[in-house]
Write a structure and sequence with these properties.
The protein is α+β, with helices and mostly antiparallel strands and 503 residues long. It is built from 13 helices and 16 strands. The protein starts with 6 loop residues before the first helix and ends with a helix.
């Protein structure tokens, strides 16, 4: 029988830690996936039956199963590297990001499958969606538990990119105030009878230059505009910050890294003189009502996965929880403000989604013994990329998922903020993060974006069309690494990219 995991246990655990499939796409079995059901979440008994029947994305619920996906393309262990410690899986299929740890027991698999079904579920207004929102499911932004992208055309919604709004005025909790009428996030969709907040439009300007060997390259510079505002003009001092939904793998492992480990990597005043001055963000913990270390989000503006998850339900879908019980609307939005504020997603369902989000395993590095990949890793190190993209960490004790404890992992991040220069600056401060600072994103899984999500767009707003573009956009503290890449020969650049694509 399924054993309930109250949200209080997850909260207690967080206190100890702190301090895609695209629908219609062939999943590999020759069948096209239908969209998820729309409405209220299915009854829990139905979810358990679905899990027993291999629901969700086809993962087995048999704890003794020797494989989680019969269609998974297997690769030889001797040519791969376990990036997630014991939470590494040998999966390079379209479902590479959807796997639970290999040694989960039956009760853990059941809770994982329940969280998976809620993650995929498409809500409607009867189930709490809106009144204004950006997406009707977690899956619509994190397809296949992977990465979103910028809209392919103006007017496309639910691609996985949204616009954060902020004034240059600090709030009482140390963050920054949103617009008086539109709040802290532009919601470009609404339910019937409610005006959406507005539309986002993107145009691109091509910037051309050449590598040291004379090879030309072109980067696309996005220009953002907001039109068709539904509630009057925005404040003249408002800043826009586009944010793409990131891959979901390995989040629980990153949460299990001791805060002391992250603090030990900080060098805010560049005491060692290497030009790198990473620093932690200190953000507001809503549950504990205090500032604490930030770990998640493009600017490390979330302290833990419970708050990150509840915040996404609230800000992205307009669904209230016990963590964020109020609708994400302002006093000027009367239809939104009159919506019910009682929790629309109960604690048990929220806990299931947090458990699921914490448990997604990491695909192994591919071709780790390939000489070109190994050469690329050496070049990665020589260019000082590893000064911020720290290759290895060890997790501490995870209070609710023992499989995540005491693991040697290779996420290629320090979880710190770094100044990335004017080219990537959004001009928007976020707690301690300045308008040009971003958290170092983990690199595990980046070589599988095209397989899982059908694109190779990188960086916080998806402007980089490939990994080469992403490196070339690096500035600020990473300027020396970018210049080292520009000075490389074509063969060296290809080797470095081969290494990144192996992750």
């Amino acid at each position: 029988m399924f054993k309930k995991v109250p949200i209080v246990l997850i909260v207690m655990g967080l206190l100890l830690i702190s301090g895609g499939v695209v629908f219609g796409q062939d999943p590999g079995d020759g069948k096209r996936r239908p969209p998820p059901p729309i409405g209220n979440p299915p009854p829990r008994d139905d979810r358990r039956e679905n899990a027993d029947d291999n629901g969700g994305r086809g993962r087995s619920s048999d704890a003794n199963s020797t494989t989680q996906n019969d269609t998974t393309e297997q690769i030889l262990m001797e040519t791969s590297l376990p990036l997630g410690g014991e939470n590494t899986v040998e999966d390079v299929s379209v479902e590479a990001f959807t796997n639970h740890p290999p040694d989960f027991d039956e009760a853990q698999i059941e809770l994982f499958d329940e969280g998976d079904e809620l993650f995929e579920f498409a809500f409607d207004d009867a189930g709490g969606l809106g009144p204004v929102f950006n997406a009707n499911s977690c899956e619509s932004c994190h397809g296949g538990d992977g990465r979103g992208r910028a809209p392919e055309f103006n007017g496309e919604t639910e691609s996985g990119l949204l616009i954060r709004l902020a004034l240059p005025t600090r709030a009482d909790n140390g963050g920054f105030l949103g617009d008086a009428m539109y709040g802290g996030q532009l919601q470009d969709i609404s339910i019937a009878g409610t005006a959406r907040e507005g539309d986002m439009a993107i145009t691109y300007v091509e910037i051309t230059d050449t590598f040291a060997d004379g090879t030309p390259y072109s980067l696309r510079q996005p220009v953002y505009a907001i039109a068709n505002l539904g509630y009057g003009p925005m404040d003249a001092t408002i800043t826009y910050s586009p944010r793409v939904a990131n891959q979901m793998i390995g989040l629980g492992l990153l949460e299990a890294v001791d805060a002391a480990t992250i603090w030990s990597l900080a060098d805010e005043n560049d005491a060692n003189g290497d030009g790198i001055s990473g620093r932690p963000n200190l953000v507001w913990d809503t549950i504990n009502q205090q500032l604490t270390l930030g770990r998640f989000g493009w600017k490390a503006n979330q302290p833990n996965l419970l708050q990150q998850t509840a915040g996404a339900f609230n800000g992205d879908m307009g669904i209230t929880t016990s963590v964020f019980p109020n609708q994400p609307c302002t006093a000027g939005q009367t239809a939104c403000d009159s919506a019910a504020n009682a929790p629309e997603l109960d604690d048990e369902d929220l806990a299931a989604v947090v458990f699921y989000s914490s448990s997604l395993s990491i695909p192994a590095q591919r071709n780790a013994d390939d000489p070109t990949v190994q050469w690329g890793e050496d070049l990665f190190e020589a260019a000082q990329c590893s000064s911020c993209h720290i290759p290895q960490m060890t997790t501490g004790t995870h209070p609710t998922i023992p499989q995540l404890s005491n693991q040697t992992i290779r996420p290629y991040t320090d979880l710190l903020l770094h100044d990335m220069g004017d080219g990537l600056a959004d001009g928007q401060a976020d707690f301690l993060a300045s308008g040009s600072e971003w958290r170092t994103p983990p690199l595990w899984g980046i070589g599988l974006f095209e397989t899982v999500n059908g694109h190779t767009y990188y960086l916080h707003d998806g402007r980089a069309r490939n990994l080469t573009d992403a490196i070339l956009w690096h500035g600020g503290e990473a300027q020396a690494s970018q210049q080292a890449f520009i000075q490389m020969s074509a063969e060296e650049r290809e080797a470095l990219i081969a290494f990144l694509e192996s992750l």
